[in-house]
Each structure stands twice: as structure tokens, then as C-alpha cells.
Amino acid sequence: MKPLNLLIEMWIILGVTIKNIEAEKHNKRQKETNVTTQVSVNEVKQFLSHILERRRSSKVINKRENLLGKKKKQHKLKMKGILNKDLLERNKNHLKEQAKKNFTDEGDDLFNMGIKILQDSKSQKQKTEAYMLFAKAADMGNLKAMEKMADALLFGNFGMQNITAAIQLYESLAKEGSYKAQNALGFLSSYGIGMEYDQAKALIYYTFGSAGGSMMSQMILGYRYLSGINVLQNCEVALNHYKKVADYIADNLEKSEGIPVEKVRLTERPENLSSNSEILDWDIYQYYKFLAERGDVQIQVSLGQLHLIGRKGLDQDYYKALYYFLKAAKAGSANAMAFIGKMYLEGNAAAPQNNATAFKYFSMAANKGNAIGLHGLGLLYFYGKGVPVNYAEALKYFQKAAEKGWPNAQFQLGFMYYSGSGVWKDYKLAFKYFYLASQSGQPLAIYYLAEMYATGTGVLRSCRTAVELYKGVCELGHWAEKFLTAYFAYKDGDIDSSLVQYALLAEMGYEVAQSNSAFILESKKAKIFEKEKMYPMALLLWNRAAIQGNAFARVKIGDYHYYGYGTKKDYETAATHYSIAADKYQSAQAMFNLAYMYEHGLGIAKDIHLARRLYDMAAQTSPDAHIPVFFALMKLETMHLLRDILFFNFTLRWKWMKLDNMLGPYWDLFMIGLIVVMLIFLIRNRHR
Q1: Which of 94, 281, 323, 621 is at 20 to 30 A from 78, Cα to Cα?
Q2: Which DSSP string corresponds to 154-219?
Q3: How confident is the model at residue 281 (pLDDT cuts 50, 70, 90)?
Q4: pLDDT over 50 at 40, yes or no
Q5: The whole model's pTM is what?
Q6: Percent of the chain with pLDDT over 70
Q7: What 3-state DSSP class applies to 49?
Q8: Nearest of 485, 484, 553 to residue 521 by alpha carbon
Q9: Long-range contacts of 194-197 (CB under 8 A, 24+ apart)
């Protein structure tokens, strides 16, 4: 199937049924702007007709020339014909180039319009309109629009998942040098989704993608070299890849504060995903709105924060954020005052950038001792926004806010000492404040800590530590938004779409995505994988998640080896993984499983006493383990008692058999006589 046919298929899926009406509107707009392709084509036709008419006229005139100069005239006609032909070709080429340029410009305009609608969209209908524009722009040869459509086909945006069509479109784009297409083909090859499973080919695609500028490819390569996945483990190479992505993320974070994305674990509450604390239920949201309208200041501030940055599954809405902050500020909330100051400092649709207003609200909050307000005043003096630059004042406000535990202020103090802004450079103090801020997850503080460990500035150089810190920064990239779309797709029953998105994030090294992908594969609900490949792939992903510290994944690996899922049954390996989970992560499930293996001697030496101890430890570690442990211990003690009784009976019978052999059939009379003799001896001794 050719790319054009794919694009036509996309149009059909999107439901573009008003083509003629749109074409008429489009033609009207083209005539008004005088830059349309149709006008250009008409001009081409008229111009070519004029040139052809000139050629015919000149031929007639040439034939009527004097016969005496026939040879001379014929020579001139020949030369003139050649010149006219060259002129015609030049004009043709010029008009074609002009038409192509107009066509390309129009495609660019449609793509930009689609991007703007997508950024401002708050409904599914608006997003669909954006993709309709992308489809039109892609039909005009716009590569960026083709990339968008290929992504939509791969990830199943709006229920239009078609992996085969996506692959064909990506392959076409890759030939044009698209690094996004190279990255996508690498991802599909690494999992064998719609393509042959080929890790070597995936590595080549990722290499080309990273060379072309793909941050996702850089991150994938960084994770592969860090973990030694199909390449030799190399910390320095991983550091190089992760640093490039972290630099890109940090640059964006300096322009706007990073927004953490909720990463829902499907393994935590599979029976009731809607109650997951990472996503705010619609009913709960309505209840919070009711409380906010009733005057609950704390709820007003919380809703304002959620809408300000778009957390808990809510859309970012500056107008709603400002509305709730103003209500809380009128009630005297210092936090609300500080957040209003922040909105005016940064500027947005609801609160246009205004340093004076920002200073006013920051001052109101700071007078109440609010850390956010103090930090805001420090920023104004540090950058000279609305006030003269004054590092001494900035330092004073940052120190006050940092003492109250505000991580952004701690970072700013660290940055001042790191860069020597208004103070002497002091890397030890810089490290101290960066570390304090990083404990609260301040992304830029984590980035600068990574810089210090990578270069050995103020601390002993540590490649591994630097890479781990850089990795944490990289995971704040815009691609992390797929966690939400993947979760909602899973919740809506679109398993394949959810799996593809989680799998891509897993390939980039997100531990949560690795466990979620394995969880979905284990359920065998996905259709994009063959059933016999699901358990082996799930085992691979559980293993990657376990290496990154997921205790549940470590227990799962033990289960897979115990039952032989995706691998051969191996009790020894299962016991090893259960031991790691029990010793390192104090997993009650691992303790219980290990106790069972000790009880029955599966893969390890049988040890009833150790089994009892592990059962007791499981019950102490988790309240949920009390009931299963109670029944397990009852069973163990019952079986142990039965074995003791059987052993006792067997021992007595064995002894009797032995006496028959030694003393003959009258051994009992012999024993009675021996007892009588002993009694007589004891009685005589007593009388004496």
C-alpha cells in the first residue's frame, strides 16, 4: 500500500464526509488570497497556451519569407524554435515550483492550525478536528503531519489503531530521513509488534534516530547501555545519552515549572482502577467543587493548584485556577495569594504577565510568613522583574523560604552558590541545598546534582549516580503524558492501545510502564501479540522492572519460574527470587511462598522450623497475610502431628520385630521376669 492510499484510509477513518463543501470553502479562500494552487494551475495553462500560440504564429510568418533566403531563414527558425522550447521548459519548471511551493505552504499552514487546536483543545471533538487538519496536510506531503497521522495509527488515537498501516507510513517517512519514524520502527522491532522481532535492527533504528535528533531514541539508548540490554554495559556511554536528554529537559524546565505526571500502577488495584489515588474521580471532583463553593478554603486552594498545572487527570484551566485562588485569597489564604502572584509572574491567558501585580500578591503572602510568597519576592529581586536586580535581597528571601522547607527556594540558594550569583562560589553549600531540594523532587535540583556527580564538581565523581539522577530528570519529558492516555485507554477497554503506549514507555526505561506492560501481557487480553509470546515478553519486562527495585516484579519472576510460565520450571531459581524479595524488600508474599517451598522441600532443603519462622514473619509484615498464614500453619502442624504419630507407630512395630528376632517368640515373658527381679531388688534395698 502506498503512503497516499494510507492517507486516504486515514481520511475515511476520521469521517471526512464533507469534502465537497470544504473544497468549495477552500477554493473561495484561495481566490481571495491569490496564492492557491488552482490559480497557479490556471496561470500555467494560460501561459503555456500563449507560448504555443506564439510558436504557431512564428512558424506561419517564417513560411511566408522570401524563397531566396530560405536556407538562412530555416536556420533562424530552427534557432528560434530551440529558444522558444527552452523558454517554455523554463516557464513550465518555474510554474511547477511555484505551485509546489504554494502546495507546501498550505500544508504547513494546515499543520500549524492543527497543532494550535490540539494544544488548546479541551474536548475530543476539537482533537478530532485537529487530526482532520493533519490528514489534509499529510495529503499535501507535509512530513510532520504524516508523522502525527502515523502516531495516531500506532497508538490508536480516537479508536483508529492500524499498526500495519502505521508501519508502512513510518517506513516511507524513514526513507525521507524522519528521526521519529526511525525511533518508532526501532520500538516495533524490539517488541516484534507488526514486524519481525529483531533487536539488532532495533538498535540500528535507534542509533539513526538519535543521530537525527530524537530525544526518545537517546533515552532508549541510554537505558540500554545502563542495563546492558543487547549491548555491552557501559556507564559512560549511558551518561552521554542521558545528559543530552537531561539538558533538553532542564532547558524547558527553566522556562516553565515541570509538571509531574501521575503514573498509575495497574498492579496495585486491578479490581477497581477508578478508585486509584493518582486519578481524581469525577464524583469526588464534583464533591470538592461543592465544598469549594461552600467556602472551604483548603479545598479552594487545592482545586486551584490542580487546575493550574493539570494534575490528577484534570485539564489545565487557568481561568478556573484563578477563580478558586481569588476566592481563597479573599478568605485570607496566604497560599492562594502566593499562587496568584505566581500566575501573574509567569503570565497566562487568565492572568497576563504583570510584575507589579505579582509583587503585590507575593508581598501579601510574605507578610503572613508564607514560604511561596517569600520565594516569589526572591525571584523578582534575583531576575530584576519590576524591581532593580538585588542579589542581597533575593538571598535574604530565599533563605527565609528555604528555612520553611520550600524546595524551590532551596534550589535557588543552591544555584546562587553554584554559579556565584551575588555570593562567592561554594560547591559544598550548593550541593547541600541541591540535595535538600532533590529530596522533595525538585527537578532542576536533581539535574544540577547530576551535573556535579558527572563532572566531579564539589563531590567525588560517580558515573552511576550521575546516570541515575539524569534518568530521573529525563523521565519528566513531555512523552510521560502517555501514562495518562495509556491508563484511560486501559480503563475504557482499549487494551491494545494501552499496551502499545506502556510498551514504548517501558522501552525508555520507566519502571512503572514495564510492570504495567507485563501485567497487561500476563492477562492475555491483548490482540497485537501472539499468545505463545505473551508470557516470555511479560517475563522479560518483569525482570527489567525487578532490576529497578520493584518488589512485586521480583515475586512475579519467582512465580514464573515456579509454574513454568514463559520459561522452564525451575524451583531453585524461583526460591532465589523469593529470597531476594523477602530479604531486600520484606515482601510478605515472598516470605509466604518461600515458607511453602521450605515446608515441602521444593528447590531447597526441607526445613519445617524455617518454614514456621517465615510464615510468622509474613504475618507480622502484612496484616493481609494473617488469614492465609493461619491456615498454612494449621495445615503444617496437622501434617507434622500425623507424621509424628505414624513415625511413632512405625518405630514401635520395628522394635517388636527386632525383639522377636533376638529373643524368640517368648521375649515378653523374659521382659516380665526381668521387671519382677528389678522390683524385688528395689524392695530389699528399701528395707535395708
Answers
A1: 94
A2: HHTGGG---HHHHHHHHHHHHHTT-HHHHHHHHHHHHHTSSS---HHHHHHHHHHHHHHT-HHHHH
A3: low
A4: no
A5: 0.77
A6: 75
A7: helix
A8: 553
A9: 194/163, 194/164, 194/166, 194/167, 194/528, 195/167
